[in-house]
Amino acid sequence: MKALLIVDVQNDFCPGGALPAPYGDRVVPVINDLLDKFPLIIASKDWHPEKTVHFNKWPKHCVQGTKGAELHPDLKKEKINRIVLKGTLDQEEGYSIFEGIDIDLGKFLKDNGVNELYITGLVTEYCVKETAIDAVKRGFITFVIKEAVEGVELKAGDVDRAYKEMEKAGVKIISSSDISG
User: Structure pTM?
Assistant: First the structure.
């Protein structure tokens, strides 16, 4: 069985947010078009406390209970089966969806018969990359849907380097047109 993972498609990672991917909101319609192709859909949210080591490296973003931490308003949230909160502790970075403390996601997915994961979301070179590599490490056949992720490209070439790192780890980079369902 396959599952769709939607990584951090939150207001603060979209244009106008505290830590935006310049075109972060353009993944939303692509993700919405994919939702009916998957029997199980899991989304993550960065859900940081007011004070966290994470903010030593990054501007304050996705603080628990704020508008910036909410999922993008145009994302069809009613189709999501489960939301995983990550980065919830003050001593935690929380890049990968598998770092959510409210669920052992790998076990949950395997208990539900999932062996293929299709990853979408924000941002390519951080949370998407870490989630994809963690998925492979946990034994899942893992795909990143290229037009359903968006990078921030802090340094020129960051996104390309992230794709190469994911592919080296065993992640397959595909197009949404490659998905049947």
Answer: 0.96
